[in-house]
Design a protein that fits this description.
The complex is a heterodimer. Chain A is α/β, with parallel strands linked by helices. Chain A has twelve helices and 14 strands. In chain A, the strands form three sheets. In chain A, strands 6-7-8-3-9-10 form a six-stranded mixed β-sheet, with helices on both faces. A four-stranded antiparallel β-sheet of chain A has the order 2-1-4-5, with helices on one face. In chain A, helix 3 (about 95-105) packs across helix 4 and helix 3 packs parallel to helix 5. Chain B is built from 13 helices and no strands. In chain B, helix 9 packs antiparallel against helix 12 (about 255-265). Chain B starts with 14 loop residues before the first helix and ends with a helix. Classes of the chains: A alpha/beta, B mainly alpha. The interface of A and B includes residues 55, 152 and 187 of A. The structure holds adenosine-5'-triphosphate (ATP) and magnesium ion. Adenosine-5'-triphosphate binds near residues 19, 44, 45, 46 and 86 of chain A.
Chain lengths: ~325, ~300
């Protein structure tokens, strides 16, 4: 058995013979890693997850989880994984406690075990006080936490979370991150998650893959991805009207110097170290720096670079569709 | 949280959990439950009682013209009256197989309610798909067959229960068991209902599981409801129908179900040959549709 907990090779899903939702993706996730999947709406994140969790059959390619082939040993895969889906799947007409017991039954966990485990999990996600209330009465954040509890009921080795923080307030999002970190630290769980929140991915994920139009465009640690953009950006202007491009270029770590609208734009690794060096070098030559700013690239820049789309729009869109879906659900239950 | 479960569980685990989930939604919502009973009660009350067809033939409704009556002694008149009321029973008996229209009608209503409930329950799979519950279950080690079976089973159990309630309601409204009735016959009645609901719900779920819009099953329901109900002996005997309708009614499994149920519940003598035909037809219908339904649903889930 390889040490890769998740391994996808040429994984492909084509819907209705023409819509290529996932296009020959390759990646691997190591034991105990938090792996983030980023990408615009419709990029193929959920479809990839659905193949990995054996809900959809790949059209082409293969993948394995803990060494079990997702197509040939799907029952072993199902026993080993937990899933927290993008939608709220808990049954509204049942209580939180009943929902967890139902999930446990689906894994064939005997009642005497599952009752104990349900109590533990409800305590973990801080829903003990609401365990006997119908899920109808839960807030969005409570529902997400209940989904998380359901996803943990079989004590999975690998947990898949599809947009676990969608539509949550800042506190609940922070709490969710803490759960995720705790699962990794205390139980050595491997986590595969998708999100539209870039700061979240940055803070939480050990490695990130950006997927667009079904293809993985880049994989790496958040820092690697940021560095792949060519480093920090220092913008400065000087009092004198002379060209200092050549001078700055000679300074250590400086990669690129451009003059734009009277300002010098300098690309450099470790900008906080380079900036004082630039000031010092210019002072020695008798130039006076009048303005200087330092920008560290965020995942936002990385994302925009690789997908060419604004993330904010993408996030808003999907939030709207989630709301529409929830509204519809309510209507159906009158 | 270090060990994951071993694989020693049975192939059918989760069946009761999933079936019970559906049933719970239903028995924990008494309002919906009561609402679904109103329609059949109205039918029974209105058609079965207010429009009591048998009263059309009753002795008191027959008024002899005065000059005719004058020619007879009172004793002769009453003999004539009982002759006509005997005639009424004979007409009712030969048309409906029983002298009580409400009994005739209540059995039809039981089958109709079972049919309707089956179709109605089958719609839940659309929601399960749409709200992501189905995908969630598909990611657990529950077998695909169990997922489908739980839907079929819960629809069937619900239908049988609703049918039983109709029977209980009909009793105070004048439902009369036939002379051939024994409590054991109830088993036969529910076996019959079980078979027909099993077949219908399997078919219905195979259709519904493919649709993400609730409109599709509604349309299918409307399409099937009319021929299944009216081209059957639910309200009127088949032999009173025009030939073309008889042709439809004669292949309608609901007709066989109802005939079997009537023989077991309200007829004074059971035609065992016909009852065997009824059971064979409904049994074959159930076997074929359940197989087709489960195979087609299973195929969809394994896409
Ligand atoms: N069952 C399906 N049948 C046909 N097309 C589908 C199906 N599921 C997804 N698609 C299509 O596949 C593409 C990828 O969808 P997917 O749900 O994987 O995107 P996503 O990255 O999860 O998006 P989001 O951020 O909105 O959740 C989309 O174009 C979508 O319309
Ligand atoms: Mg998605």
């Amino acid at each position: 058995m390889s040490e890769d907990v998740i391994k996808a090779e040429g994984l492909t899903k084509i819907f209705n013979h023409n819509l290529v939702a996932v296009d020959h993706v390759n990646f691997s996730v190591k034991q105990g890693e938090i792996f983030g999947f980023l990408g615009p709406n419709g990029a193929g994140k959920t479809t990839t997850i659905n193949m990995l969790i054996t809900v959809l059959k790949p059209t082409e390619g293969r993948a394995s989880i803990l060494g079990y082939d997702i197509a040939k040993q799907n029952n072993d895969v199902r026993n080993a994984i937990g899933v927290v889906p993008q939608e709220y799947t808990a049954d509204e007409d049942l209580t939180g406690y009943e929902n967890i017991l139902l999930c446990a039954d689906l894994y064939g966990i005997p009642r005497e075990v599952s009752k104990k485990r349900a109590d533990e999990l409800l305590a973990l996600v801080e829903l003990t006080a609401f365990k006997d209330k119908k899920v109808q009465t839960y807030s969005g954040g409570m529902r997400r936490r209940l989904e998380l509890a359901c996803g943990l009921v079989n004590r999975p080795k690998v947990l898949f979370l599809d947009e676990p923080t969608l539509g949550l307030d800042v506190q609940t999002r922070a709490a969710t991150w803490n759960y995720v970190r705790m699962l990794k630290k205390e139980f050595g769980m491997t986590l595969f998650l998708t999100t539209h929140y870039l700061e979240e991915a940055d803070a939480l994920c050990d490695r990130i893959a950006i997927i667009d139009h079904g293809k993985i465009v880049v994989v790496g640690t958040p820092d690697e991805l940021k560095e792949s953009l060519g480093g920090d950006i220092i913008t400065l202007s000087i009092k004198q009207d002379v060209d200092i491009t050549g001078l700055v270029k000679k300074i250590e770590r400086v990669k690129e110097v451009k003059k734009e609208n009277g300002m010098y734009v300098v690309k450099s690794e470790s900008g906080e170290v380079t900036a004082p060096l630039i000031i010092e070098a210019l002072r020695k030559e008798g130039h006076v720096v009048t303005k200087l700013s330092l920008t560290k690239p965020t995942l936002n820049e990385v994302y925009l670079q690789y997908t060419g789309k604004s993330m904010r729009d993408a996030a808003d869109e999907s939030r709207e569709s989630a709301f529409a879906q929830r509204a519809m659900m309510r209507r159906s239950h009158m | 949280m270090s060990t994951s479960n071993n694989n020693s569980k049975s192939k059918t685990h989760g069946l009761w959990a999933l079936t019970n989930r559906e049933l719970k939604k239903w028995y924990k919502a008494p309002v919906v439950f009561v609402l679904t009973l109103i329609q059949p009660v109205l039918w029974l009350g209105l058609l079965g009682n207010a429009l009591n067809i048998s009263s059309l033939f009753s002795a008191s409704s027959i008024q002899f013209p005065a000059e005719l009556a004058a020619q007879f002694t009172p004793a002769q008149l009453s003999a004539l009256g009982s002759f006509f009321s005997g005639l009424q029973n004979q007409i009712m008996g030969s048309t409906f197989g029983t002298t009580s229209y409400i009994s005739f009608m209540a059995v039809g209503m039981m089958a109709f309610t079972a049919l309707f409930t089956t179709m109605f329950s089958g719609m839940s799979v659309v929601w399960d798909r749409r709200l992501g519950f189905l995908n969630k279950v598909l990611s657990t080690p529950v077998s695909r067959a169990v997922i489908i079976l739980s839907k079929v089973l819960s629809a069937t159990l619900r239908s049988m229960f609703q049918a039983a309630v109709i029977l209980l309601i009909a009793l105070p409204l004048g439902f009369a068991f036939g002379a051939a009735f024994t409590p054991l016959n109830i088993l036969g009645v529910f076996a019959m209902l079980f078979l027909v609901c099993l077949g219908l719900s399997s078919l219905f779920i195979a259709i519904n599981i493919r649709s993400t819009r609730i409109e599709t099953p509604m349309a299918v329901m409307n399409l099937l409801n009319l021929p299944l109900t009216f081209a059957s002996s639910a309200f009127f005997p088949i032999k009173q129908m025009p030939a073309w309708l008889q042709a439809v009614a004669n292949v309608n499994p609901i007709s066989y179900t109802i005939d079997g149920m009537r023989q077991l519940l309200i007829f004074d003598s059971i035609d065992f040959a016909q009852l065997a035909v009824d059971f064979a037809f409904v049994g074959a219908f159930a076997a074929v549709l359940t197989t087709i339904g489960i195979v087609f649903s299973w195929r969809f889930l394994n896409k």
